[in-house]
Amino acid sequence: GTTADALELEACEAEPIRVPGKVQSRGVLLVVDDGVVVQVSENLPELLGVAVDDALGRPLAEVLGAEAASGVRLAESPAGGPLGDSLQQLTMHGREWLVASHLGGDGSVLVEAEPVPAATGDGEPTTAVFQQTHAVLREAATASSVEEIYALAATGVRRLTGFDRVMVYRFDRDYNGQVVAEDVREDLEPYLGLHYPASDIPAQARALYEKNWLRLISDTEAPTARLVPELHPRTAAPTDLTFATLRAVSPVHVEYLRTMGVRSSMSISLLNEGRLWGMVACHHVSGPHTPSLEVRAAAETLAAGLSLQAVVRAAADRAHHAQAVADELRRLVGVAETEPLAEAVAQPRLLELLDVDGLMLRVGGASAAVGLLPGDPDRVVRALVDAGGSAVAETAGVLTCDALPAALPDPDGALGEVAGALVVPLPEGDVLAMFRREVAREVAWGGDPGEKPVTVGDDGVARLGPRRSFARWQQVVEGTSRPWSVEDVEAAVAARRLVVEVLYRRTRPDLGAAL
Ligand code: BLA
């Protein structure tokens, strides 16, 4: 039932992913407080060759060697910058390491080190990595559409990192997502176009990804390494790993990846003014995969640059479209010098430009319409104005609904073929309304979004697990029109402005050409 689902989702959202007390075992983590090592990952002996007890309580220089320790940028790197900011290649205990460090919220410094792969097999030399990154960014500058920029992100990140599959995954306003670009090994099934429900990436994970822009789960089969001691000795709390690149990932999510047949996963945040609008999601199925910290830093830079370009591009496209709508409205309103306003505006040309199936304008006593109208347009308009609630959205005074059959109390006969309406209330009870017909949409999901098995953990708490199947699952959505976009609402706002302007001019003929 709905209540049980809500409770289980709450459990998902409550998982403390910032403070797992563990890291992934591909590298080591040392927490340094006031120059002294106070916490380390338990794999320190295996990877660095230093016993845990020989590290705790000692100055960093004694643990890493004086030269290496002096290379670590201690308090200079506040958390929240790009991964590349603090990156250093250092020799420690006879081995080459890539070292990242950042200042944690509690004032201690988190030092993370990953061995540089012995063979240069999959790692590109630094110059090549940066040349590649810049080449893709340059190409994006001349891209002809947002979609082309998404495609460049998928191919660019795949070429840099060598993952089997790289996708651009874009959220809608409820954080459901769709794969909008993909570069994938030829023998694997494409995921392009597939939808996934918002609950696949819970809210606290999205919040974390707005702060830390890249995460790599290099091997879903590898053991994790606990931090010793469990709590930070000064704060008596688990150390916050929000910005740690080695942070051990939620077991629920690891299970999700295993079910999907994924051995390694990396994702990079796509942001617009700090808000997550999508992710570059990478999978490796043929084995564990560990692009070096340097390659990851380059991939992060590439994704950030392309995200910015995609955002700018989308805004420019929107402005361009809005201008075309405004120009056409102005032209039509010009016609209104000789004709009634409603008739002048209700033109087929405008249907095309606004991407609607029908349009109605009522001013004063006069009303005119073009294209497809509901059986009872007045009732539909009134229902939307009176409604409120979740079925009808209101933005800048514009009401939209793309599922009228469900939103109307008794839709029989009132709708005809119409399933979507956008209503712009005008002064004096006048109204501009646009309509869209019903389209049975097929939505291809990556697995049945409703299937979330519940498991009861050792602690007796029921938790929602990931789906067991990711086989393509086709859903037919009925009773809806194509959704109303931000651009649609912006065009409606422009139309309202012009209509109001014309009406005002008519009431003040003395203003003449001044308006
Ligand atoms: C995290 N879920 C994630 C991440 C992705 C997805 C990309 C980020 C971590 C990563 O890079 O792997 C989801 N991955 C996808 C999707 C696609 C993909 C949609 O490739 C599509 C192609 N997941 C569930 C349920 C829960 C859940 C029911 O399905 C709730 C218990 C949890 N997902 C979950 C959690 C994280 C996560 C807790 C955070 C993992 C972490 O960073 O610790």
Helical stretch count? Answer: 15
Helical content, roughly?
25-40%
Radius of gyration, in angstroms, nearest whole number: 28 Å
Please, what is the CATH homologous superfamily of the largest domain? Answer: GAF domain
Count of domains: 2
Q: Given this structure, which CATH class of the largest domain is correct?
A: Alpha Beta
CATH topology (level 3) name of the largest domain? Beta-Lactamase
In this structure, how is the largest beta sheet organized?
A: 7 strands, antiparallel
Biggest sheet strand order reads 1-11-3-2-6-5-4
**Coarse shape:** elongated
Average pLDDT, to the nearest integer?
A: 87
SSE class? alpha+beta
| Strand residue content | 25-35%
Span from first to last CA? Answer: 59 Å
Number of strands: 23
Bound molecules: biliverdine IX alpha
The CATH architecture assignment of the largest domain turns out to be 2-Layer Sandwich
Question: Features of this protein?
Answer:
single chain, 515 residues, alpha+beta, Beta-Lactamase, 2 domains, 34% helix, binds biliverdine IX alpha, receptor, hydrolase
Please tell me about this protein's structure:
The chain has 515 residues and is an alpha+beta fold. The chain folds into two domains: 2-314, Beta-Lactamase, CATH 3.30.450; 336-440 and 478-514, PHY domain (Beta-Lactamase, 2-Layer Sandwich), CATH 3.30.450. Helices cover 34% and strands 26% of the residues. The protein has helices at 2-14, 44-48, 52-55, 60-64, 66-71, 126-141, 146-161, 203-211, 251-259, 293-335, 341-345, 348-354, 377-387, 404-407, 486-507, and strands at 22-24, 28-33, 36-41, 88-92, 95-103, 109-115, 165-171, 177-184, 195-196, 214-217, 224-228, 264-272, 275-284, 358-363, 366-371, 393-395, 398-401, 418-425, 431-437, 441-446, 454-456, 462-464, 472-477. It has a seven-stranded antiparallel β-sheet with strand order 1-11-3-2-6-5-4. It has a six-stranded antiparallel β-sheet with strand order 9-8-7-13-12-10. A hairpin with a 5-residue loop joins strand 5 (95-103) and strand 6. Helix 7 runs antiparallel to helix 10 (293-335) and helix 10 (293-335) packs parallel to helix 15. The N and C termini lie far apart (59 Å). It binds biliverdine IX alpha. Residues 28-67 form the PAS domain. This is SpoIIE family protein phosphatase.
